Amino acid sequence: MNNSNQTNDSSHELIIESTEDFEKALANTDIQKYVLRLYVAGNTLRSMRAIQMLKRICEKYLKGRYEMEIIDIYQQPDILEKDHIFAVPTLIKELPLPLQQLIGDLTNVDKVIVALDIS
Fold it and tell me: What is the CATH number of the domain that holds 47?
């Protein structure tokens, strides 16, 4: 069998052989992606305000480097217990670590920026 059509170009591979290599590679990532989940309760004023505020904050401070998921607890009630949600609106920042949880309608932008560790 002739494998001449297959190229094994490993010049773009990142080889990590130690914790130090891993930490260097992690530090060299140019863009830190934010993964956010916002739990809301239907179309209430507080829920709509939280969604609007989160979108504004993300577009201003995290443009192009965030993923946002909006979860309506009325449509997915079983998720409350699974994700340990006891109040809404609740914002959870999954990435970058550490995990953060913020409760409220997100109108205090300074508090949200600090909680999300946006730099």
Answer: 3.40.30.10
Beta bridge partners of 102: 91
Evaluate whether residue 46 is within a structural domain.
yes
Rounded CA-CA distance 50/70 in Å is 10
Residue 17 forms part of a structural domain: no
Which of 46, 36, 30, 10 minimizes the C-alpha distance to 92?
A: 36
pLDDT tens for the chain, 119 residues: list them.
444 444 444 444 556 677 776 665 555 555 689 999 999 999 999 999 999 999 999 999 999 999 999 999 999 999 988 889 999 999 999 999 999 999 998 999 999 999 888 86
Number of independent structural domains in the chain: 1
| Sign of the C-alpha dihedral computed for residues 41, 45, 48 and 49 taken in this order | negative
